[in-house]
Amino acid sequence: MTTDATRPRQRFSGVGWSLDVHEDGDLEVYTLRGEFDFAVSPKLAELLPAAPGPRRIVLDMDEVEFCDSSCLQILLRLGTRLREAGGKLAVVTTVPAVIRPIELLGLGDVMPVHPSVAATRAAWGGRA
Question: CATH top-level class for 10-123?
Answer without folding.
Answer: alpha beta
